[in-house]
Amino acid sequence: MSGVIVTNPPKAELRDVDALARHGVATVSEAMGRTGLLGPEVRPVQQGVRVAGTAVTVLGWPGDNLMIHAAVEQCGEGDILVVTTTSPCTDGLFGELFATALQRRGVRGVVMNTGIRDTQELRDMGFAAWSRAVSSQGTVKATGGSVNVPIAIDGQVINPGDVILADDDGVVVVPRERARETVERSEAREAKEAATRAAFLDGQLGLDRYGLRETLKNLGVTYKSYEEYTGERS
After folding, report:
1. Dihedrals phi, psi of 31, to nearest 5 degrees
2. What is the DSSP string of 41-77?
3. 40 pLDDT exceeds 80?
4. Among 63, 79, 10, CA closest to 71
5. Which residue in 129, 142, 218, 228 has its CB near the most CB atoms, within 10 A?
């Protein structure tokens, strides 16, 4: 397998990346019209952590982490490494030594569409990681691949320089050219949710706030007392 290493691709503005980091994955996905989510199988190895960064993408071979070594050189401050393979792989392609090198370069985390290992060490050093599997299975360094090319994970195309946002709920990708727009939409959604939260704290029901009583009526959903429903008499 031949490949290419693309250097210096354009990236989303860091101010937009950091602004998106103030919002959760669910909020940002909703702000983009419920798009951009990776599948629920890509899970964090830690809890209570949210990171956002610009994607450095890797397309490698199953069971082979050569191209991750090549990608480290292309990573810098504010990046998130995103790795997939040409066919499904759960081997532990990434661990504490890679994280040490990336942390030194200012990388904010890693998203692996494969396996990961050394998870306790990653938590201890505060390096954020999301992966499809946890596996101690080792790898080789023998097959070419590509860095900073478009890749796809769970039907989502990720281009180098796109924004990757990850937290306890999963991972979402924000296209680089939509970053500023998505910040604005996320902020508007947060404001709307804050107003709704205040209303719920004041006792309002979602049925009334969202006009759902009429929806229930139109769907033929009726209210009956227990006696009417069961035919029993108290």
Report:
1. -65, -25
2. T-EESSSS--EEEEEEEEEE-TTB-HHHHHHHTT--T
3. yes
4. 79
5. 129
